[in-house]
Structures are given as C-alpha cells and as structure tokens.
Design goal:
Layout (H helix, E strand, L loop, with lengths): L1 E4 L1 H31 L6 H19 L6 E4 L3 E5 L4 E5 L3 E8 L11 H7 L6 E7 L9 H4 L11 E4 L4 H19 L6 H10 L6
Antiparallel strand pairs: 1-2, 2-3, 3-4, 5-6, 6-7
Helix pairs in contact: 1-2
Length: about 200
C-alpha cells in the first residue's frame, strides 16, 4: 500500500490545534485554582467537562488529522479521513491529471474558513482524480471531508499531497496491475467491471 497524506487536512489541523491548546491550558489552570478556592461553585463539573471536550478536539485536530490520506491499494483507491474512509474502485476512475485549485474554486468565492484552508495552495499543482461516478456512500462525504476536496464542474478528488507525480504514478501502476489481473479472454467483461464498481461502496 502506498500512502500520500492530504495536505489540506494538515492546514486544517494547524489552524485549530494551537488555539485549542491555549484554551485547554487556560481551563486547566482555572480548574486547578478552583481546587483551592472553590470559586466556580456548582459549575466545577461543567468546567471540567468543557476541559475534556477541548482536549478531545485537540486530539482530533493535532493527531487524528494526520490519518487523512489517499491510499493506493491493490484492489481499490481509499480516501481516508481522520475518522472515516471510503473505498473507490479503479473501475470508477475516469482520468488522473494535474491541475490547480483555481480550476475548481475561486478563492474569493469561498467561505472565510474555506478560504483560510485553500489560500496556501493557491497556484500550486494538485492531482485531480476524475471519477465516472461517486460511490453511493459518498452522499455523506460532506459530513467528514471539506468541500474543497471535491471537484465542482467534474466529479473527482482534488488531491494536494507532497508529491503529486508520485501519487499519479502509484495510481496508474495500481490500475494497470488491477486490469491485468482481471483481464479475461472472453467478451463479457461488463459484468465483471460492474461487480468491481459495486465492491467499493463499503466505508470503514
């Protein structure tokens, strides 16, 4: 398996983890101070609950975000998020080409939070994995992935990784090997391809 980290998630984590760390330290300091003064009164339990929530969010943005990647596996391409991932069969991939964020989104038209994430990648080359169709499971993708990870005019993944050319080579190599293994001398490949496409609708 070849794994390529998605840099967009690095940017999301970078913008959140420092603020959350400072907030967690502040809540902890006040919580410790309350142990001696009891100035929080009946709100001490809610205060510690808030502290645990902030720590959980920090773990998500500082650690879990590192899991986000494109994984090139032998049987399918996997879009892995911090928590959940989707499998995409190679039969769904229409093309793999280089591109830029501006081909899919105008920076000035994005929401403020999206603009802060996308701006560092403006002008940089990404890899666009165009899909003939999205797996059925992708209907929930916006709950787990940022909108700017997906194309607009064309279906597909806007992939900013450390080495987009290496990702392109890995995908094309996996596609070639996959097709070589499934090649059949008879002319009834439609059913086989359909089974391959349907096989990717499972998420973990």
């Amino acid at each position: 398996m070849q794994q390529h980290r998605l840099l967009i998630f690095n940017q999301i984590g970078k913008s959140k983890k420092s603020k959350l760390a400072l907030l967690a330290i502040l809540l902890l300091a006040i919580g410790i101070y309350d142990q001696f003064t009891e100035f929080l009164g009946d709100y001490w339990l809610a205060w510690w609950a808030a502290f645990l929530l902030i720590v959980t969010l920090w773990i998500y943005y500082a650690i879990m975000m590192r899991r986000a990647s494109i994984q090139v596996r032998s049987k399918f391409l996997r879009l892995q998020g911090p928590i959940i991932g989707y499998n995409i069969s190679y039969g769904r991939i229409h093309s793999v080409t280089s591109g830029k964020m501006e081909q899919h989104y105008k920076i000035e038209d994005l929401k403020k939070a999206e603009r802060a994430i996308a701006k560092p990648f403006s002008g940089q080359t990404c890899l666009f994995v165009e899909l003939a169709s999205y797996p059925k499971s992708f209907r929930w993708r916006k709950l787990w992935f940022p909108r700017i990870l997906f194309g607009t005019a064309r279906r597909g993944l806007v992939c900013y990784v450390e080495d987009w050319m290496a990702l392109s080579r890995d995908i094309e190599s996996a596609r070639s090997h996959r097709y070589a293994r499934t090649e059949h001398p008879r002319h009834n490949e439609v059913g086989s391809l359909a089974r391959t496409i349907l096989a990717d609708d499972v998420k973990f």
